[in-house]
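Form 7-S
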Amino acid sequence: MNCVALICARGGSKGLPGKNIKLLAGKPLLVWAIEQARAVKQIARVVVSTDSEDIAVVARQAGAEVPFMRPAELARDDSPEWLVWRHALQYLKAVDGSYPQALVVAPVTAPLRAVADLERCLTEFQKGNVDVVITVTDAHRSPYFNMVTVDADCRVGLVIPPKGSIVRRQDAPPVYDMTTVAYVVRPEFVMEHNGIFEGRVRHVHVPTERALDIDTPFDFTIAECFMNMRNDR
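Output:
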């Protein structure tokens, strides 16, 4: 299968300035994602989409391609990443003459992922009859039990009121958190639709300790702790 990995790493980050090239356990955060993607045998190319020359330099040094610079309108805080995926696919088709059979998106913000997590996503995608494979992990909150909304009168209610009484979270219907560990998408689906859940979606379960999404300094500190625990084993 012709697979291309895409890593999206824009220059601006308000939650954690300089996040994508901030050192984590001695490596820029971006490099973890590049090395993980390059370790997957099914992935032929690793492409980084960025608007930053500094990030581009780090990406190339780590063995990734930066064949284009992302336009400014796709590098704002409110720019949908779906459109960033679409922009990269448009480039690949223009240069190669066709889309890859699968696009593997490996977000920079999930450095605790295992190479096996990416491989399992590809295996699930290769089963066929699917547009998107996402990663999920166990949820610690449930809309049936301890997630609430507050209405205009300040009354509190469950997000999804259950039909019967639920006295333990374990008795509620199982729910999962989506993670940013990986996505595998069918390129034609991305070009023709506007969101993941417009298509046929499957999942790969990832343990909580590999599902951290770094968005704040606190998240980064947690990632450092986990990395140190790994190195101490």
